[in-house]
Specification:
It is a single chain. Helix content is 25%, strand content 31%. The protein is built from 6 helices and 17 strands. Strand 2 and strand 3 form a beta hairpin. The longest helix is centred in the middle third of the chain and has 18 residues, at 111-128.
Amino acid sequence: MTAPHLTLLTSADWHDYELLDSGDLKKLERFGDFRFIRPEPQAMWQPRLGTDAWAADGVFRPDKNDSENNESGGWHLAKDLPESWQMRYQELRFLARPTPFRHLCFFPEQAAHWNWCAEKIHQFQQKHNRRPRILNLFAYSGLASLHAAAAGAEVTHVDASKKAIVQAFENRDVCGLQDAPIRFITDDASGFVAREIRRQRTYDGIIMDPPKYGRGPKGETWRIEDDLRPLLRQATDLLSDDALFLLLTIYAIRASSLAAYYAVADVFKDRPGSIEAGELAIEESALSGLDTRRYVSQANFARWAAY
């Protein structure tokens, strides 16, 4: 058996976001006009920029007891930093703000997936002359949903967090996409998918970005090691005969992109199409002499496409 080819995905379309430098287990990033320092366990090298260049508007200091994920801790923010500010990717506008889990309400490395989904949506429209129906599970603050809707899809956006749904509404309004065909639903992903199967609803594309752990609005529990495979199997039951893709991104677990590849390949073994897997990465902009740019891996992914 031939081993799968693994791909390193980055996005070159960012102007409002930049990975300025990395090293000493940290990364220095620009979000709009503001700079932030966040933990980065993979940055096991020396920074290229001097200490003065690492001045920042916000620094996230992880809890010493959270040695694995560096997600718990606290921000030390400049007094004049606004509560939120507007950013842009292509024609997509949205709000950024520091969260208690070291993120800033979106994941810039995901832009490579947004572009890929938009390309698939355009291909579908040309072939079938209608809007594809896209299901976005664990959809967070809505950027993938909004980008897909702007590309011409009808989107069902599902997240168990009411706060995340509120943020998605805010981003929709910032984008001026109030009339876009998007359903925003606060629900447990597994429960929603099971009910959609019983309703005999189908989707032409599915986006999945599951957390390591999670809780639904009614106390439902999610553990990726136990629940991902059943959800993937259910998700394939939701795909229409004309389905064009399923996209899986995995953060925060000790697994390689091979794990994502084989998880998706297992449920699509009887369906024609192709599967691509690899890592989502951010390209560092700091250069020193003749050094080439470095890449910081952020997540594993696997995606099936019908064509």
